[in-house]
Inverse folding.
């Protein structure tokens, strides 16, 4: 026989106000507030934080406890999700439904866990291969290590810039940062050209300099890199990015790319794996790959055949604008003896 007691000791806590002893913090442990914390209320700081991009907002959260608490305001991350997912999920109701069902009503959790493209820098892929040199009066065969780079820059309006160049990141970033003529409205281009013409007319002509040995100055000055920057459109479907652009001086040839967004740590979205890069002819309806074909026999033990399919498919690494000048991708192959994946 088991006797159950009706005594409930926790019932005595009801209707009793628990007071916390007032403990004064000694002056040695008190932290002096910064002038911006004393001058601005939290509502004004949230308004200032709303002008930052999400990754700059994350850096501001490392300043102090107050900034860390304010950076989690739902309004800030709701705006960040709209900017990041408005192309993939244009319907606002679908976006709210996704946030509520899969991310437990947290805009910040959705931004960190849902794959998206970053607009505050470039995606860069470094590809290398060995090329056999020409034999000239020697008994050995010279080889050369050839390096080239793929550059992708994605804009929030669905436009992207693409370029391949042998130049390093630091020399190409300026051309990718400046707006291309195809992205500037025609009316604005005319205004800029008229303004440049007026400025040149007001300036006196520069004195002519004689070239030594009767030589002529090359057009373009000392610019080391003036390769073309191609512009196209992209769409995002989940973690897949589909890109297409039309080659210059052509109306039917397209360059198509299929990429996959990947993160090395939560919320980074700092890698793009290249699945395919193909050219498509609209008139002929034919598509061809720019990459080496896969081996004909999947079970071929030849390691060279297995490596041929991965040539030119190095993943793209994201580089923020403030890290362009100091990034390891600027190093030559002789100093950079490892792959960034």
């Amino acid at each position: 026989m088991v006797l159950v007691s009706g005594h409930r000791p926790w019932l005595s806590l009801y209707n009793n106000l628990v007071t916390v002893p007032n403990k004064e913090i000694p002056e040695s442990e008190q932290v002096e507030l910064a002038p911006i914390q004393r001058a601005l209320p939290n509502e004004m700081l949230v308004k200032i934080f709303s002008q930052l991009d999400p990754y700059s907002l994350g850096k501001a959260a490392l300043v102090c406890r107050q900034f860390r608490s304010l950076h989690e305001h739902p309004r800030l991350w709701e705006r960040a999700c709209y900017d990041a997912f408005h192309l993939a999920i244009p319907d606002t109701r679908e976006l709210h439904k996704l946030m509520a069902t899969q991310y437990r009503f947290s805009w910040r959790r959705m931004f960190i866990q849902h794959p998206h493209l970053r607009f505050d820098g470039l995606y860069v892929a470094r590809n290398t291969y060995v090329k056999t040199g020409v034999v000239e009066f020697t008994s050995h065969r010279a080889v050369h290590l050839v390096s080239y780079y793929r550059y992708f820059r994605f804009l929030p309006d669905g436009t992207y810039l693409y370029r391949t160049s042998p130049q390093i990141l630091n020399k190409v970033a300026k051309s990718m940062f400046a707006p291309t003529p195809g992205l500037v409205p025609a009316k604005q281009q005319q205004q800029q050209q008229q303004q440049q013409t007026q400025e040149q007319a007001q300036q006196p002509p520069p004195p002519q300099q004689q070239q030594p040995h009767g030589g002529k100055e090359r057009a373009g000055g000392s610019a080391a890199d003036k390769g073309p920057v191609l512009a196209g459109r992209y769409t995002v479907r989940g973690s897949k990015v589909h890109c297409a652009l039309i080659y210059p001086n052509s109306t039917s040839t397209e360059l198509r790319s299929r990429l996959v967004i990947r993160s090395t740590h939560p919320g980074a979205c700092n890698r793009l794996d290249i699945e395919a890069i193909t050219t498509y002819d609209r008139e002929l309806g034919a598509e061809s790959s720019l990459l080496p074909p896969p081996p004909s026999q999947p079970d071929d033990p030849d390691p060279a055949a297995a490596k041929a399919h991965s040539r030119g498919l190095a993943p793209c690494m994201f580089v923020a604008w403030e890290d362009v000048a100091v990034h390891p991708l600027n190093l030559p192959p002789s100093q950079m003896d490892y792959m960034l994946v």
Observations:
- Confidence is low (pLDDT under 50) at residues 182-190, 208-224, 295-310.
- The first strand starts at residue 121 and ends at 132.
- Residues 135 and 141 are 6 Å apart (CA to CA).
